[in-house]
Write a structure and sequence with these properties.
The complex is a heterodimer. Chain A is of the alpha/beta class. Chain A contains seven helices and ten strands. Classes of the chains: A alpha/beta, B alpha+beta.
Chain lengths: ~230, ~375
Amino acid sequence: MGEALFRLESVDRVYRRGTEELHVLQGLDFQVDKGEFVALMGPSGSGKSTILNIAGGLDRPDLGRVTFEGQDLGDLSEGDLAGWRARNVGFIFQAYNLIPVLTARHNVELPLLLTPLGRRRRREQAELALEVVGIGHRSGHYPKQMSGGEEQRVSIARAIATDPKLLLADEPTGDLDAENAAAILDLLCRLNEENGQTIVMVTHDPNAADRAHRVMHLEKGVLVTEATT
Amino acid sequence: MRFPLRLLIAHLMKNWFRSLLTLISVFVAIAIFGFLRMFIVGMETSLEAAASNKLVTQSAISLFSHLPMRLGQDIADHQEVESSCHWTWFGGIYIDTSPDHIWGRFGCDPDEFRAVYGDEIDLPEEAWQEWRTTKTTCIVGKNVANREKFKVGQTITLEGDLFLGNLDLEIVGIYKSRTRAFDEDTLFMHWDYMNEVSKQNGGRHDRVSTWTILLDDEKNGPTLSARIDAANEASDHRTRTLNMRAFQSQFTSMWGNLPLFFTIIGTIVLVACLMVTANTMFLNARDRVREVGILKTLGFGPKRVMMFTLVESMILCVVGGALGVLAVAPMDGRSMMFVIAAVPPSTFVEGIAIAGLLGLLSGIAPAMMAMRLSIVEAVRKRA
């Protein structure tokens, strides 16, 4: 077992709609080590995205503890948690979540605004990130001028621009055709293999999950199986 | 604190029509505010600028009743009077009765006028000399000259109404005022000339509207006022002698409690504008729920997100407000119905501060909404 990057301990998450309670996660224990590539699988509503949200500090558990490099995220205020996210986590979404009124480069520069980098260095860093994901030639284009695959590459560039310790990808190939999906998975694998980037990916696609080091299956908020590929 | 300024500008440009309408609403509101303040400040300023060493004697019946010319000698004989100057409202018509051609026209004695008002206006020496020596000449204020495109040397004709007969007057000088108590919307001619022409045409004559008295010492004002009025108490031309401030306040009181009325109107306009701006900011915030979620995901904290929304509304309002006060600025110094408009720097500061406050108030609720937005809910929202 390697060095833990983050750990979820006995995590419960309950969503409430009126009087109805939906137990999305129940006593979940989950650890990801540095440099790992982990795939989370399971039916819709099994709690996969909720794990990502909690691990990435977008949501907080009702019960249990989340630690990142030993630091308890529960101790952080909303403002501190935002700062922690900016420094440590990159997010990749199924719907890309690019800002349509900004060009690819300016989208990638957004998280860099939270770093001490000056304007020129931010620009260079954003262009480098776009080059790494193979889309440097599209830096001046707006999201609506790009294909889904290209948008997802920009989204990955934005996620890695700040060199985060953890990449969280929520169905990154879900909206893509097979060819683009394969290219995106190749890119994630390359980031993991060449840079030692820790990645946790939610997916419904078994082929995508096969690219990860470890695949975890969830059902009704509980981890049911775990396999190493 | 760094903002995604480019994003903010991109949004303002993307919804340019909405932004423009909001900006215009703030512009109009602040321009109205500036316009109303211009009157209020103008009234206050002209009263403050009124000379304390001057008295004005007018008819006790009203400012619009005349007094006999012979009274002038009685006034001048008082030892406290350093000099005095009579003014008579000629009225009359220049071209037609449209508002564009309505401005003050007074008959006076140029030498007396210079003795009493010489310090309050700028007029070239040759113009003074030409005016005093030629009965059919006149001087006009800068505003009248600009408005009517009058030039020195030009002859104009005034058609009498209160005083009968037509007056052909050569303009020999254009004066500028040195004080806000003296407006630049007036023509001054020889009283002798207007009196003579009116008399020849069977009209009223030997009548005067007011005397302005320059005191040897301002402390003598109250006693001299009382003595002049007492001397005429039993006559058919009872007088009322006032200090200059009280005299000026008659004009402003013609407007009633205008400052209160203007304040109420101004407040209503600003509140209406606040509603418009707040509505725009709510629409903007609603359009950007997903985007705020993305920013928060990337690490923009609650305060930064709140400031981002607030800065946007502040930009719209402050730019609109600045344009609003700038639109009013050219009115500074113009005479409008007995009030000299005043747009001092404080009006700019007040206008922009109010615009900033509008921005703050209209942006605060959407900003709080953005700050409290759940990231998970926000990013789930499809574009």
